[in-house]
């Protein structure tokens, strides 16, 4: 399950283990949780954010802070690199949750090493998938314990009030083997993704539809960008946002707005009363 909150920049993923315990990604204070209620309570505390005292903030200071920062204090106006890193960390948490679930369900011992490629694919309304190439280390006492291998994984998003993700394809692949055409990846520019010869569902047909960014390319380009220039632009953007709240310091303007609002409310009430009276007549 992926829990979202308007104060958080990325979802919190939740996995329920065999014994009914709720594990969150990232780990929230107090977890893992014995019940959904306990998780929900921790989630809302986490979404409320920083523990610093904000009770002395003016209304203007609060609005500026909420416009510039997520609840954990990270900037909303961010460099391309910060946005790419944030999204990479988000995908990392999703993959970790899916692998932990698979390890538990099938008694496997795979440990995520690295996400080599990932691509988000849309095949229509409520038809979203991820394709991943990941390297994993096998743990345990088997002959191949400690070896690192390349895997392909496909994760589907199930649209509900709280969306869920599940692995619909997961298999080891030969990094030197012949690739299989996946329209979902190639149409989005993810040309280095390796696919298995069978068993994956998304990308089999060319829908010529729903092209998104190539996730590999976005991350790669973000790392090459000149941070100093971008940082200067971001500071200017943050200043513009701060200044957009300056009208709150204009006492005369605020009084006019307050009076105008009161007049409109009174007018609205009067219209309602007149309509009710007309209905009675
Ligand atoms: Zn693909």
TrEMBL record:
Parts forming coiled coils: 220-274
Taxonomy, superkingdom: Eukaryota
Keyword Transferase recorded: no
Keywords, sorted A to Z: Coiled coil
InterPro entries membership: DUF3615
DUF3615 domain segment(s): 95-196
Pfam families: DUF3615
Protein's UniProt keywords contain Disulfide bond: no
PANTHER family recorded: GENOME ASSEMBLY, CHROMOSOME: II (PTHR33326:SF49), OS05G0543800 PROTEIN (PTHR33326)
Protein's UniProt name: DUF3615 domain-containing protein
The organism of origin for this protein: Triticum aestivum (Wheat)
